[in-house]
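pasting for ref. prot 1 ->
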Amino acid sequence: MPESLPPFLTHPALNDKKIRHGFFTREGGVSEGLFVSLNCGESSKDDPKNVDENLNRTAQAMQAAHLLSCHQIHSTIVIPVTKAWTRDQKPQADAMVTREKGVALGIKTADCAPVLFFDAKAKVIGAAHAGWRGAVDGMLENTVAAMEKLGARAENIRAVIGPCIQQNSYEVGHEFPAPFLKQDVANEGFFKKSSREGHFLFDLPGYVVKRLKVNGLKETHSIGFDTCSDESRFFSYRRATLRRESAHGTLLSVIVLT
């Protein structure tokens, strides 16, 4: 890979000649200030020219003619991709699935969980943005169902959760566990007491893994990196908020059928 292209993380579960995938860090871009350097957030306060260049670099790194993303709204909407769209035509959704070769699916995050999916037998891929609200409302289930409509089978799908906020960084208030406990009292296991009275620490990737397994996936993994605590490699909405910074960058996770 040329030195001008940004580095990315991979996971062995998605190492397959039928696909390419990458969890990009904040390294290898052209943005400056709070957005240093590979900011991929088109809705940020960053210079749009810098964001365009960063996205072009990620597409080149994935050897993809088309890199698609959605206007993410913390929904449970999944788009089946049959053809590419331009960056100014992005649909509102939080996941995409496809059988089309050469069309890269990109998910943007800054603490939420990016999840990449692959069924090697059916040659179907998916990419989902799973914040806590989307995860509890059915984002993951909907993504699996959309892949099945394209011929995938849940038991054949491999899923990998990319860099996201980890439990020791994810402090929540006393009211936060309610929707999780209403869903299943066993979800109490994803919360542990914080040092602050009446607060908890929430295990987002652990909860995502459970939701995937409940829906029939046998192979689920989490890459395990904490976006909030690892400032040198990742952007983080929570870290920026705690510091009262005016803006933050956005990470990109990508999967493409070759």
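and prot 2 ->
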Amino acid sequence: MTLLGIETAAGLVGVALADADGPLAGVWLRGDRRHAETLAPAIDHVLAQAGVSLSDVHAIAVDVGPGLFTGLRVGVATAQGLAEGLGVGVVEVQSVDVLAREVYDSGWEGPVAAVVDARRAEVFAARYEGPVARTEGPARHSPAALAEKLSEVPGTVLVGTGAHRYAGLFADAGLRIATVREPSPRVLVSIAAGRLAAGVAPVRPAVVRPVYLRDADARINWVQR
């Protein structure tokens, strides 16, 4: 089975391709709010790099968030369009799971908190006791409240854009920050491939929904006015 992964939950645009034997190709580019312009060429590049036709793809994996509104919207819509056109299903993977898995893949065995920068002085976070053991979240927090909460779990390592943006605050609470910032497309397709191998069926493209956890900033601004 050939699996195409789309990663647009944060500031970077990532695409990866894998089959039953493992990764085939991947690319990771700076999106900077240009996810729509960057994603399609990235997909074309990865397919060409692997010598694979789009018609050879058997399923689409996509990061459904939480993350940045524009990136999620572009990634999910692209995954839906490709899957509909190919007549294949979609594997939904959350950004926090991708972040946490990368830490556990590096050999870490303790508790992890995946912390995504939500902007507006907020973060989205989820807690883990193992690579497939999410114990809480994802949910929206103020950085200070999250730091206080996580400080009650000794040895917790933080990953993600939110962890790095508020690194000083978390460090003051005695928490460690890992180097991982952005969800990796390589890890995304690895998680999706593992779920397919375990018998988890991909879903119909029409039912895929981003995990926003908050209204778009444009709607918030309108309501506040």
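The first helix runs from residue 35 to 50.
The chain has eight helices and ten strands.
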